[in-house]
Structure formats: C-alpha cells, structure tokens
Please model this.
Amino acid sequence: MTSAHPAQQTTVHQSERVLLNVQSLTKDFPVRGGWFGKGGGTVRAVNDVSFTVRAGETLALVGESGCGKTTTGRAILRLVEPTSGSVHFDGTDLLSLRGEALRRMRRHMQIVFQDPFGSLNPRMSVGAAIAEGMLVHQIARGAAAQTRVAQLLDEVGLRPEHAARYPHEFSGGQRQRIGIARALAVEPKFIVCDEPVSALDVSVQAQVINLLRDLQRDRGLAYLFIAHDLAVVSHMADRVAVMYLGRIVELASRATLFQSAQMPYTQALLSAVPVPVPGARQARILLAGDPPSPANPPSGCVFHPRCSHPLKDAQCTREIPQLEEKRQDHWVACHKVPALPASPSTLSTV
Model:
C-alpha cells in the first residue's frame, strides 16, 4: 500500500496545518561500565520515532514506564540533545538552532512537568516564578508583569494574592496549576504535558484535564500529552501514539485506537483500562514475561518475546516491522496485521 509516512500525514483540511514535524528521532544514552566508567555501551531510549502534531491538536504519547515517552518530549524541546533525526517546528529546523536563536524559539514551546513540586523553585515566590519567563523574553516588566501574573493565576483557577506565596504553601493540584500558568506566561503555541496529572488525586486530575482543554480551546494550543493512563487519554487526545521500548508501534485517532486497536501490545494496554460500569468485567490480556531491557533489546520486532498473536513466526524474530499505514490514518508496526486497500484520493501529503 502506497501512502505518506506518519511524519508527513495530514488531512485534506488546509486549516489543520502541521505545527510540529518529528522524523526519525533517535536518542542514545551512554552506559558507564568497566574501569573509569568506560566501555559500557549505549542505551537507545528513543528509536526512529516519527509523528506530527497539528495546530490546536492533542497527540497523546502512551506506553509503559521506561518506554521513552518523556525522553521523546524532552528531545523535541532540546532539554536533552537528540542523537539523530529532525524536528521542525512551524517550519523551522529546531536542531539547527544555537544560542540566541534557540532561546527565542523556546518561547513558543513549553513544558508542564510531572512533579508539580520538584519543577518549582522553593525559594521563588509563585509570582516570581511565573514572571521569570516574561522577563527573559522581554514580554513584560514591573507593574505590567505583575498584572499579567494576576491574570494568569485567575485563568488557571487561583487568586491574584497567591502570587506572594511559595510553592510549599499549595496542594499538589494547585502547584500544577502554577506550573501551567508559568508555561502560559510566554504565550506558547505548543506545550509538552509530561504526565501532568499522574501525581494528583483522581478528583483533582479531572479538574486539571478540564483546565487544559479549556486553555486549548481559548488559546488554540497544541499539546503533546505524555501519559500511561489510557482512561485519561480517552478524555484528552485527538490522536494517540503508542510506544514500546523506544519505538512507536501504533498511531491512530483516539476513536479508532480505542475501538479497533491492531497491535497486540495496544490491545493488551486497552484491556487493562477499568470499565466505568458497576459490576461490568472486561477480559484481560496478560502479557508473558517482563519488558526487555533497552540496553539489550531483542532482535526483530521488539515486542515478539511477549506477543501472543496467533500468526507470530520466525519473521517476527528476524525483521523489524516498520510503522505502516494498514488502514486509512491508522499506522501499525506489526508484520501480521494485514493492510486494507485504500483509494489514493483519500490521502494527502505535505
């Protein structure tokens, strides 16, 4: 089946322009070992990852802990430097930027961290933390910055007088709202949300998710929403990319993925999502064994040691499956998932 790569795939609606285009992103980390920390090899945390995020869209990146989700988000923002690949934001090659040019671009791309307490400087007041980005990027100073801080606090559901307080005086949910306000202070177009609700109580999670959705609607924000909780993703995402051991193994719209997942790993993840109906039960798919080490990944398909697909054979152990469009706008990395024919007229590339 001939079609565009997922990093090039878009819809026919020209208003849905691609804001972020990631192609073949790879990140290796050295492993220290032996005498004087030499000769330890490398761990490939992110392996040939490609996807797009459209303006105003939420792409969720999901998978088990350690699969490379957070590293992917940080590599896009260059909080860690990618080993190879390309990242284009709004038409600009991010990996070619240095110094002042990179600093200016960072105004348009922000991150909300998983730990709302660890991401805030305990010695800075809330107002100072939110205003810091405005000062760095020369957006506002003095009274104008204070006014803007009060507006941002109100926008995220806090009171203007909270600007004089310090992070330890707030609950976890309130601290995450402060983190969101800090990200909004420089008026970004794109935000990496790195498991922003996983450290919060369930009731507070719903409030923060609703806040993020309201901000997206009002500001036209695009999100890369990193999560391991598919129940949260079902309320937040427009499209979902599933990662396993550093690779994207399935990518589709939220409705398509939740209704007709094709990759055996994705099917196992979905079977673990609680059913919100009293007394209802869902058949669980239990995976054999433990996730392999990224320092010593299996040959062929990285999932094959745990896969229970009835057609699994020697090809799965020898050949790495590529992320291919098996159905319209539904990408799967699996040798045994058949591709359905599609009309070329239904596809569009950029």
User: Anything to note?
Assistant: The longest strand covers residues 18-30. Residues 19-108+188-275+283-349 form a domain with the Rossmann fold fold (CATH 3.40.50.300). Confidence is low (pLDDT under 50) at residues 7-15, 343-350.
